[in-house]
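Feature request, filed as a ticket because there's no other form

It would be nice if the structure record came with a short human-readable summary line next to the C-alpha cells. Right now we just get the raw output. Example of a typical job, pasted below so the devs can see what we mean:
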Amino acid sequence: MRNVTTAYYPTGREWHDYMNLVVEELGIDVEYGMEVTTIDEGTNSKPCVTFKDGSTVCAKYRVFVGTGLEEKDEKYLRAIGGIRYSDMKLELAEGKRVCILGNGNAGFEVAQNVFTVADRVIVVGKRPTRVSAVTKYTGDVRVKFLTTLENFHGKLLDTVVHEDLESAMLKMLPVPILNKTQSREFAKVMTAETYVGQYQCELLVLATGFRSVVPGKRLTKRFPSYGDLYAATDNPTIHYIGWLMHKHDFQKGAGGFLSGYRYLIRNLIHHVREIDHGVSYPHLVLNKQEALEHAVHRFQIADDLVILQDGVVIRDAIVPTGNNYRYYEGITYKFFKDFEHREDIIYLYFAWGDGRTAATVFDNVYMYNDTSNLRNIYLHPMIEVNSLVREAEEDLEMAWKTAQYIPPIKRIVRDALRGDLSKFYPKPSYPYQRFEVNTRKNHIPYEEGKNYPKLHGGNFMNVAASAILAGGTKNALRALRAEAKSIMPGLTFPQKKLTAEDDYTSDTTECATAGSSCAGLSCCGNSTSCVYISDFDASFCLDV
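Raw output as currently delivered:
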C-alpha cells in the first residue's frame, strides 16, 4: 500500500485513486451495473444474493448490505407539476415564485442556489428547521444553506413556513375508501395544491427527503430492523452497513455519514473476524500508569470519539483484569455483552455541554462547582463509570495538551482507576429541544378573504383520489396532471424527457382497473364493478 496524497484532506481524484489501489492490492472483485432483487438464505445456510438476470451468488460467511438511500419517488406530486430536487435546474427558477416542499438540507440547498434569480423563494416544512449549528447533528441544515432563512428573519421577500398541514388534512378529509398509506399520499397532494394556491407558486420543487433502500424489502420505517452487529433480525448472516447503521444515533451522531460509519464498519469487521476466524478483538494490555497516560492521549487525538459524539454508539473502554487493564479504543460498546453487568468499566467519550448555542456563553454566566471556570458549552471529555460521570473542561482548540487541561483529566481518570467515585455524579442530559408556537389545529394556512383556491376546489380532489386508488397507473396520473394544469394555470410544468414509468401518455388501457375511476369506462375483469362514492361524487371500480 502507498500514499496517494500528502494533503490532510484528499481531493476527489485522490480518493478515487485510493479506492482503486485498495481493490487492486486486495484482489477485490467488483461487478458494476448489477441489480439485486433478493438477499436471503441459500443452501447450507449460506446467505445468497440473487440478481435481476436470475443469477445467484452465495457468500462463504456473510453478506454486507450498504445500499444506502434513494430519493423519494413522489409520483403523485410530480404528476401535479412538482420537480424532484435532483432534476432541478437554475434556469427553471429565473423570475419565478419558487415553492420548495421540504426544509432539510436539500430544500435549503435549492433555496440557496435559486434565491439570486427567483422572484421569491418559499420554503415549506412540517416542523421548524433543524439547524446543525444548534442541534449539533451533522445531518441537519448547514449554515451555508441558510440565506433564505436569514432573509425571512430580516423581513425580506423570502418566506419560511412551518406548519404540519398534512397531518391536519388527514383528520379533515373524507377518505373512507383509502387505506393509511393512500390517505397520506392524498393528503400530500392536497397540501401541495393548497400551498401552490396560497403563495401563487410558479415552480414547485420537491425536497421531501430520501428513503432507505434494502434489495427485496419494502421498508415501512426509516431503517431496517436489526440487532447486535447490525445483523438482520430474520437472518444473522446479513449485516447492514453505511447509512443503514444509523438507527441508534440518528439525529445525534454521525453514524449515517462517511465520517462516522467508517468507524462503525471497522468495529463490525473486528467482531466478525473474532466470530468467524478466532481473531481476538484488538486491544492494549496496560498497567495503571500506562492506562492513565493513554486515556489522556486518546482525548488528544481520537477522531472517532469526536465525530461519533456524546458516546451514543462509540466509546473507549478501560477494563480491569487483575493487576492490568485492557484498553479498547473507539468500540461499539453495546456489542460487548460481557460489559453489561460490570460496574468497574471506565468509559471515555466526548459530550456536549448544557448550552446548545454559542449565545449561551454571553447570555448566562455558567460556572463549574469546583473550579470556578466556565461550565462546558462545547465538546469536552467525559469519563463514565457505572452510569456516573465526571466532566473535564472544554478546550476550544480541541487539543487538551496544556497544563490547564491535562492534570484535571488525569485526576478524574486516576480516581476512576482507583475505584473512587465520590466526586462522580449522575450523567446529565441536555437534549436539543424544539420550540414551537402553539397554533389552532386544523387551521387552513391561507388568509381568509383572499381569492385562493379552496381546499378541495374543482374536481381535483376526486381525480387525485382516483389516481391514488388506481395505484398511479399512467392513465390515472395523466388525468391528474391534466386536472392540475386546469386549476393551477400559473404553475410551470417543465418539459423533460420522460422515462417509461413517467410517460403518462403511452397507457393504452381501455378499461378501468380496480380502484380507479370508471367514469366513461367499464371495469376490467369480472371481480370488480363500478360503484358510486358519494363522498367524492364520483364512481370507482371496486371489488365485489
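Something like this underneath would help us a lot:
Residues 356-370, 434-456, 505-509 have pLDDT under 50 and may be disordered.
The CA atoms of residues 198 and 450 lie 9 Å apart.
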